[in-house]
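Friendly challenge for the regulars: who can give me the structure tokens for this chain first? No prize, just bragging rights.
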Amino acid sequence: MPLPLRPLAALALLACLLLPACRTTDKADADTQGQDPFTGEPKVTADVHYATAQVFESKLETPGPGGTLPSQAEATQLRTAALSQYAAALRLQPNHTPSLHRSAVLLTDMERYDPAIAMWERYVTATGRTASSLVNLGIANERAGRTAAAEKAYREATQVDPTHKTAHVNLGVLLAREGQLQPAQAALSAVLPPA
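First reply, four minutes later:
Bragging rights claimed.
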């Protein structure tokens, strides 16, 4: 049972809690230890949320009792829980690239194309418009049936990295499907030997 504080001691404690000078040292010490300066509890960071989401995602591929994978309903719950954790990470650190990437992958896999494409666009920006990030944006657009946007993303990827095989192949296949055989062949031959 805690001992009761005398009124003067309680007032001194309250004053110390309110004065920044009393907290500065404690806060600095807590920050270096990864703790909340007032509660002493570990800080929850974007990386903590990301790791939690990864646990949910790992359960998608982990057989349960009897060697069966999660049911479709269970898989949806796991994906939703993972997305919730990625969203929490992104609230703390809006450009947390691992969370942007995994959110975009899950949303694309769930065929939630509008939010997936928005997430891929954030990822492209956060990574500095790399060829790989642009290819992923192109794939999401292509899966959503937005061929013009997919072609634009693939073309930009080939400009960013003229040797990026996936960008050229995806562009070539997309153009071939659209009946643009000569441009398709040009895209493919940039990285593949003649067949």
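The chain is about 70% helix and 0% strand. Confidence is low (pLDDT under 50) at residues 1-32. Your move, everyone else.
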